[in-house]
Amino acid sequence: MPTRAKMDSTEFHRRFEAIANNVEQVIKGKPEVVRLALVALFAEGHVLFEDIPGVGKSMLARAIGRSISAEVGRIQCTPDMLPGDITGSAIYDQRTGTFEFRGGPIFANILLADEVNRATPKTQSALLEAMAERSVTVDGTTHLLPRPFLVLATQNPIELAGTFPLPEAQLDRFLLKLSIGYPDADAEAQILLANGKTPAIDRLKPVTDGDEVTEMIAWASDVTVSEQVSRYIIDLCRATREEQSFQLGASPRASLALLWASRVMAAASGREDVYPDDVKALLYPVMAHRLVLTAEATLRGESVERLLERVVSRVNAPLVGRAQLVGAAG
Fold first, then answer.
1. Torsion angle of alpha carbons 281, 221, 169, 82, nearest 10°?
2. Which domain covers residue 315, as residue numbers?
3. How far apart are CA 247 and CA 22, in angstroms?
4. Is 2 domain-assigned?
5. Distant-in-sequence, close-in-space partners of 53: CB < 8 Å, separation ≥ 6
6. What is the pLDDT of residues 186-228, one digit of tens each?
7. Angle between the 9-23 and 31-42 helix axes, to the nearest 10 degrees?
């Protein structure tokens, strides 16, 4: 077996780009979405996609799984689905006369939970509890989920009849909320070319494995976050709570999510410390689904994106990293 290179900022960047480029052989024209999904993977968070059907959410889950030699599971959520259909349950074995636990589809490295808002609140809670605890408890026995573990949940913003919208407390458990959206004309032409004879996903080869991914997760968790950047994250979150157009501001869990994701963003850029620019780049995908507008703000036509821009403009970023260099040059 070839000797693996020692993990450092350069090696993390190399591996991250190798995985991203591999996934982009299938997901055309959406490099930012691919990289943000990988940020969630290495930050050990989860992603909620609010998107229309047919834009590549399932392909993204499969492409990430193939790229890292991981097991991919899929759940098609329906109103009659039970928690045990996701987590698994104890099955009676007639040969031994005992109950044996058989894990459900959640025991995978990459899990696609399609149309999660069609599952009942009880079933949604079982999924989200497993996401938060990274384990499943059945009949008093706790079963650990594999590592790495990434849930890509989807919900359709168009067909809302017969759905059970995720409450704010459950939305808060997703690290990121993303949207793939339609590809542009050039990207769609590449999709047709790549999938004209056989699906591109069937030709995708792994570029790393679970052990390397776990090593990358551990390394990213040690990326330095200075006191100034930590305070910047806190100030941004507190500013959302003080913004009168928000009925619900960012929770302390949101502060942690921004911290974790920013570490991976810095590592993916080949750095060992977090810059304010990393925090700004992640602010909307980390925060947007955690914030709730007041009724008055909605009537005025305000948007979460515009209000977050206002928050960023009010909070002074520390002179760290590139900002420090610019300040010194000035």
1. 120
2. 223-329
3. 41
4. no
5. 156
6. 999 999 999 988 999 999 999 999 999 999 999 999 999 999 9
7. 130
